[in-house]
């Protein structure tokens, strides 16, 4: 087994990640403004920015969903065994210097806890936000219904709830990036795309020959 | 459809208006009335002028006699209730009954001295000049049941000359703002008293005050919007169009342009989110941020209960405030005024229930003289701005009715001069033929006046955050029944959410701290 610097996050994946990060920060900040938590922006400004960012994020998700399925990368997010071990590691092992119970490979970029968290993000929190967001944005198309007034409360509750969940996710997610070899290791990986991955000789030879994945 | 209409709104409509509006503002006529022999006079009375008008305009008087300007009689199609000044009460002067020659000075006719009956259908008694005089000289005198002066009269220590009727007759044209304003700017007994959005500042308004009627702008008149069809005006406070689903009047004209939508349609904004408001928020709500903006104060409180005070010498007391307004009048009681007043906001579907004289009232609480219908669940209702008038007025605490107060007249009962409610109300109720227990109480009243004039330029419209705010001073802070972002939140959800965010933050900080501390330990080992 040899450790090599391998491109594990492709250019699109990194573009997706960072543009999504910017948009989510924008949405969370303007969303809190619209919600009335802070008044650093004028309401009209906050709504305009929030709406524009929401459209951009939805477009990004459409592309990414396409990307995930055409590249087969969606399999990375499937449920994996060993989640208890990972939780135990973060709760205790990391404090006493135990090694991480999971080994990164090209086919398994994420540990079991990561997969579950990202899956939740992609199939529950994300959709809850855009479904209610679209319902809200196009409120006038269904405002004529007699139940619309009550339903708007429901939409608002779900949107706010999902937004708080998203905020909580982001806080923990950012903290988790500091748990690598060095506090900035994971962030650097997500910027450059390269990380040290253990390869078998066969794998290394195959990648070197085909250049299907870049290596340094 | 929606893709197409913004284009109509943005390009075609302004173009059409640019061609159409100047025409409306100064319609040219094929007749020069100063050249008519029959209008050269001399006229000894105003009805003589009317007679001359009717010689050519054969149907005019018949048309006017069908209008509310003549009948003061209106049956609300929504409630079926018969309304009109002789019946319907307000929180200002009271009833015109027994006070006719004073109150009927604003009747569009001459000589209506008994408002218990409909005005007599005498053709010459229709007042053409009050609406059509463009000489500026014609004026109905305040106390003569609709007639102008015919001889010089001493008024307020000055000799006032009668108008030149021949000059007035030859000047006739479409009514200007000052014509309508002669009565409508002075409702309630003085400039700006009643409506709050109608006063003499609108005779020559600046663009800031009224973007439509600005003399240096579109220069529209009242009738540009209040379309007249056969002398019948459109637009009504008794039967309000709170929402105009007909929208743009062109190319299909409903001959009623007294709604904003008539010219602007219901998607007038370039921003889609603003257009999303028009189904539930009246244009006026955002575009008339304040009323009484023209430098004329409007009355906001009238308390009749304190009227009749005399000083040590037995002289009636009159007190003026710093602005020269009466703050107390022995004839009328206590007053308060407001300028640049922020409206009150209510849901309103155009249906109003008015209190008439003789109606049984509930005196256990503040009496609403006009109850607005509509709420958030009513698709025909929109949020409208109102002037809220506070009143305190005489009523019969036993029979539970409002009363007719006889204020004006040269007799020993009129309140103005005798200052005795027992006498003036007895006279008024006897005159009206209504029962009265002989007792006088004072009931606090509220009256809401829809605000629809003094439309500000768009840069002065309300900003989003003036309603979408958690602040208690938010424009719609008091309006219940619907979820509004920025204003509303759900308490348990917010607590839960902030706990989750705070918890996550505290959790990761503690975890990080533990990592640092433990790491150091392991290193030392």
What is the structure about, briefly put?
The complex is a heterodimer of chains A (216) and B (525). Chain A is mainly alpha-helical. Chain A is 65% helix and 6% strand.
Q: Which strand order spans the largest sheet of chain A, edge to edge or round the barrel?
A: 1-2
Portion of residues within helices of chain A: 55-70%
Number of E-state strands of chain A: 2
By DSSP, the count of extended strands of chain B is: 17
Helix-strand makeup class of chain B: alpha+beta
- The helix-strand sequence of chain A is EHHHHHHHEH
Distance between the termini of chain A: 16 Å
Uncertain regions spanning at least 5 consecutive residues of chain A: none
Q: Summarize the biggest pleated sheet of chain A.
A: 2 strands, antiparallel
Give the overall silhouette of chain A. Answer: elongated
Query: In whole angstroms, how far apart are the ends of chain B?
Result: 77 Å
Query: What's the helix count of chain B?
Result: 15
Q: State the share of residues found in helices of chain B, binned by percent.
A: 10-25%
Tell the overall outline of chain B: globular
Unreliably modeled segments of chain B = 1-7
Question: Using CB atoms under 8 Å apart, which protein chain pair has the greatest interface?
Answer: A-B, 36 and 41 residues
What's the number of helices of chain A? Answer: 8
Properties at a glance:
heterodimer; A: 216 residues; mainly alpha; two-stranded antiparallel sheet; 8 helices; 6% strand; elongated; B: 525 residues; alpha+beta; nine-stranded mixed sheet; two-stranded antiparallel ribbon; 17 strands; 25% helix; globular
